[in-house]
User: Fold these one by one.
Assistant:
Number 1:
Amino acid sequence: MITEHIAKHGQPQTSVRPDVAEAIAQLLELGEQQSDLQPAVRLQIEVLRTIYALPVTVYALSLTTEEVVTRWGTGTPLLHNVSLPIDLVQFRALFQHLAAVTYQHERAQCVADLDPLALAHMLLSGDRQALIHQIQASGCSPEPIITLLRLALLPFLEQVAEQLTPLRTSPDVQRRAPWKHGYCPTCGAWPLLATVHGQEQQRHLHCGMCATTWPAERVWCPFCDTRDHTQLGYLQVEDSPQSIAVCDACHSYLKVHKTLQRLTTPQLLVAEVASIHLDLIALDRGYALPE
Ligand SMILES: [Zn+2]
Ligand SMILES: [Zn+2]
C-alpha cells in the first residue's frame, strides 16, 4: 500500500501521530454531541491534519543557563529576537498550505503576498504594531493571519520548547529567575487557556503557539498582573467542566479547564473548540482577550 502511495503521489505517506489521532477522535465526538459546533470541528480537524501531515525539522538552540537567567530576569521570553531554529522552507510551505486549507476564496491572494518568516519574527519579538501594519499592507485581516501564523508555528515551536524544557525547569533557573509573567516564558504569547487539576487545584497556563506549560497563582490576572481579589472572579457556566476567570481591572478573561490528565498539544486545539461557548459568554459580558 505504501509503495503504491509513493508511486502515485511521489512522497511517502506518513502515519498519524497517536496524540493527533486521539484529538481528531475527540473532535468528532464533540461534533456529534453538539451539532452547532460542526463547522468549527471540521475546520479544526483540517488544521490538525495539515499541521501534523509532514515531519518538521528543528535545530538546536544554544542557550546557556546564564542566558536564560538574564532573559527571564528582565521578563524576556527565550525565543524573543533569536533566529528561529526551524526549517524555514518547511515553515513557509506549511503556512501556505494551511492558508489554502483554512483561508480560502477571495482573500487567498493577499496571503500569497505575505512573508510568513518576517511575520513570525515580528510575532515572536512582540512587535505587534509592525506585524499588524505588515499584514494590512497586503490587504489581509490581521486576526485570522495571526491565528494562521500561530498554528503553522505550533508543530515547530512545540519541538523547540520541548528541547528547552530541561533548561527552563532546571532548579538553578527556577531559583535565580523564576518566571512570574502571564505571557509564555518560551515564545511570549498570551496563554490560550488555563487548566486546574489535582487535589490542590494547581493552575497551569498553556501556550497555544509553542505548547509550553507554566504554573500560575490562582488569585492573579496573567494579563495585567493584579492580585486584587476584589477585581478577580469567575463567570458561572452551568454543567461544564470549564469556567471563565475574569478580571475587572483589565476586562480580560481566561478559559479554565478542569482536567484529570495533562493536555497533549493536539488536545489544546480540541479544548479551543470545546470552549467556544465560553468565549461567547465572556464577550457578551464585556470581557475580551488581550491584544
Ligand atoms: Zn509559547
Ligand atoms: Zn487583569
Number 2:
Amino acid sequence: MKPIQVGLLGLGTVGGGVYEVLRRNQEEIARRAGRGIEVAMVSRRDTAKAKAVVGDTARVVADPREIVRDPGVEIVVELIGGYELARELVLEAIAHGKHVVTANKALLAVHGTEIFEAAHRHGVMVAFEASVAGGIPIIKALREGLTANRIQWIAGIINGTTNFILSEMRDKGLDFDVVLKEAQRLGYAEADPTFDIEGVDAAHKAAIMSAIAFGIPVQFDKAYVEGITHLAATDIRYAEQLGYRIKLLGITRRREGKGVELRVHPTLVPARRLIANVEGAMNAVVVNGDAVGTTLYYGKGAGSEPTASAVIADLVDVTRLATSDPQHRVPHLAFQPGQMRDVSVLPMEDVVTGYYLRLRVADQAGVLARVATILADAGISIDALLQREADEVGGEGSTQTDLIILTHDAREGAMNAALAELQGLPSVLAPIVRIRKEELA
Ligand SMILES: NC(=O)c1ccc[n+]([C@@H]2O[C@H](COP(=O)([O-])OP(=O)(O)OC[C@H]3O[C@@H](n4cnc5c(N)ncnc54)[C@H](OP(=O)(O)O)[C@@H]3O)[C@@H](O)[C@H]2O)c1
C-alpha cells in the first residue's frame, strides 16, 4: 500500500524531532502502522532552514495554508503553536477532510470544543497525545488503558519548567527570583516564562485531562489557576520538616453529585509519595480509578524527540484507523460524542482540600489558643503543628515567631472566612501564607 502522506506545519523543536524520528525508525514504524508514513510537505517561514533539514525528501513551503489545502496530504500535523493561526489551519484541514495531529495544548484548552465538533461533523480524527506531558502516553492511558474505570482523580506535575524551579529552590534553599534567572540561563525557562510560572500551561493540560477523564467539555475557562511566583524558600523548608514536598500540581477530581474540581496551584505532597520525588524538568501524572486504584506515569514532558514520540504514536493510530468506520474509532475525548455530560466545574469556594498555613505571630502566651479556636469554630481541624523558637525565626531577642499549621480537609470557603478572621488578629503580624495540601493516597 502507498505510504500515507503527511504535512508538517512547523519544523521547529517538535517538527524537527518528528521528521528525524520518522526518518530514523521508518521501517519499524511502518511495520507497526501497517503502511509507510511519509512526510510529503513541510512548512517554515524560513524555507532555507527547512530545506537544510529535509533536503529534497519533502516539498518545503513558507505558507502552512498550502499544506492544509493540498489534496495529496492526508494527515496534517500542527506544530506551530499559539491560538489564532493554529485554529484557522486546523479547522481548514478538518473542513478539507484531513485528519489532524497536534501538540498544541493552548489551542485545545481554549478552542477544543469547536475543533472536536468540527472533526466529528467531517468524520476525521484529531489526535493530541503530545499536548499533555510530552512523551508520556497519558492521553492513551486515560482514553483506552483505563477505560474500565470511573476515574476518581488525577494529579500531575505537567510543567517541567516549574518543577525544575521548585527542585532547585528546595535543593539550594534559594528564592524563586534567583532560580528563575538560572533556569532561563540554562534554557529550562523561556525568555517570557509567564505561561509556565503562572500555572497557565499546566491548567491547559489539566483541562484536557479533565475532559477525557470525566466525559465533559474542555473547560479551561473555569479552572482555578495559581502559579509559583509567590512561593518562598521558607515554606519549602517548613514543609520539608513536616514530611512534605511542594509541587505545582494540576488536579482534577470527581465530587460525586456535585461536579468536578479543576485547579492548578502549589501543593504540599507527602514526601514518601513517588510523585513528590519527581525532580528537575521531569513530568509525572497520578491517576486514581475505582477499579485499578492509583497508577503513576512518569517521563519527559518536553523536548524534541520525547514530544515527537507522542506525535508519531498519534500518526500511527490515525494511519491504522483512517480506513475504519468513524463510528468505530476511539472517540476524541474518550466518551462517545452523544454521551458527553454537562458536569460543571466547581467554584474554588467549594473545593475540599487540606492546607498548610504559616502565621508570623507575636511571641506571647494565648496566641496559639486563639488561632486554634478560630479554626475550630470554622469546622477546620488541625492535623499537625510546628512552632519555631522566636530566636530561630528573627534572631536573638526576637519577639516574633512562625506558627505552621497543617489542617485536615476543609472547604475552601470555610478556610477563606477563617483566614480573614485570623488576619485581623493584632497578634498576627504579616500576611498569612496558605498552601493547599493533598495526600494523594
Ligand atoms: N517544545 C516542546 O518540547 C513541546 C512539548 C510539547 C508540546 N509542544 C507544543 O508543540 C508546538 C510547537 O512547539 P515547538 O517547541 O516545536 O515550537 P518552535 O520550535 O517555535 O517551532 C514552531 C515552528 O512553527 C513555525 N511558525 C511559527 N510561527 C509561524 C507562522 N506565523 N507561520 C508559519 N509558521 C510559523 C516556525 O518556523 P519559522 O519561524 O521559521 O516560520 C517553527 O518551524 C507548540 O504548540 C508547543 O506548545 C512543544
